[in-house]
Amino acid sequence: MAQNVRSVVGMIVVGIIAWIVAAVVAIAVDADSKVIWTCVVGALLGLVGIRYSLRRAKRGQL
Fold this sequence. Notes:
By secondary structure, the protein is an all-alpha fold. It is 84% helix and 0% strand. It is elongated.
């Protein structure tokens, strides 16, 4: 894996962790379900971003 792909994936992983932490905090403070679902969708989109980045790197475009 190329160095810039590692940095992109690392950045996305940090974002996913941030969304998960935000979701835990939202659950702890009994936030609206809309806030919790926003955190869940943010983490899931991060997973999609990792998949997209890795597939794009395989094609040699990243």
